[in-house]
Amino acid sequence: MNLILFGPPAAGKGTQAKRLVDERNMVQLSTGDMLRAAIASGSELGQRVSGIMQRGELVSDGIVIELIENRLPEAEAAGGAIFDGFPRTLAQAEALDEMLKGRGRQIDLVIRLKVDDAALKQRIAGRFAESGRADDNPESFAVRLDAYNAQTAPLLPYYQGQGKLVEVDGMGSIEDVAAAIDAALKAKA
User: Fold this and answer.
1) Residue 6: enclosing H or E segment and its boundaries?
2) Which residues are involved in binding ATP (predicted)?
3) Given 41, 72, 125, 145, which is the most exposed site by the fewest CB atoms within 10 A?
4) Structural domain harbouring 15
């Protein structure tokens, strides 16, 4: 099964994806993690990506799609992928559909974690205090949230039109959100 965890930054996508990896042996394809790894490597790509992320901007579709495509064989071998932070734009969603179609696969389910902006700002302040991640500072987060609302939220009708979108209240406890995701997966299976 291939699924997308959809929601704005700090909605809990990474937390839920890690749980699904542990419980279902799926492969998490987190573009954020892949991009941070590129930065940590000190590679030319990592240096380019670093400046973009520190400004809170979105990395180009071409770079992100290349990162995802390189990881698809691993996900297929495991029986499925959890796309976390991808796709972010309609162009990425269409490219993902084409990539998967060419491999005889598809997105099976899109789970949207619904949260409100004020709660996200509180979450990110706490996360920044703990991690010090450059892309979690309040100014960068505001840019990321604006970018999500402008560029990524319009994907909802795309997946709703395909009959793949399920909404989950992301404001509950980690356990409550996990139970709602598990119910959506069970209903799809």
Assistant:
1) strand 3-6
2) 10-15, 127, 172
3) 41
4) 3-188
Q: Annotated catalytic residue: which of 127, 164, 186, 188? A: 127
144 labelled catalytic: yes
Annotated binding-site residue? 40: no
Whether 3 and 80 have beta carbons less than 8 Å apart is answered as yes
Per the annotation, does 9 bind a ligand?
Answer: no
Among 111, 87, 123, smallest CA distance to 11 is for 123
Asked if 140 and 134 count as a contact pair (C-beta separation under 8 A), the reply is yes
Q: What is the pTM of this model?
A: 0.82
- Look up residue 59 and give its two tokens: 């990395």
- Look up the CATH number of the domain holding residue 113: 3.40.50.300
- The reply to whether 112 belongs to the active site is no
133 in active site:
yes
13 part of the active site: yes
Residue 30: pLDDT band (50, 70, 90) is confident
- Active-site choice (18, 24, 121, 133): 133
Task: Tell me whether residue 48 is one of the annotated catalytic residues.
Answer: no
